[in-house]
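Before relying on records like the one below, remember that each one covers exactly one chain. Contacts with other chains, cofactors or solvent are not represented anywhere in the record.
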Amino acid sequence: MKMRMKALAAAGALVLVGGAGYGVGVAQAYQPNMQNALRDLYQARTELTRATPDKGGHRVAAINLVNQAINQTQAGIRAADDNNHGWRHH
């Protein structure tokens, strides 16, 4: 239960601040923190989909938020990678 709550909290935080770091500084090609977050988000989504469905709509809402967090994390990784490629040529 604690793991699910942590994953949901992380997902919610990513949704809220997903765009905050977009374009800040030069990113490294490999981003272990973002990759780890993405892995945890996929795991959170798996756990949520396995949970019993009767949660007053909150499970479905959580799955939607996790999906948004996954999309934002992937976009952040792509943006940092694109930004990094631009800096390599200078």
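The helical segments are 2-17, 32-50, 58-88.
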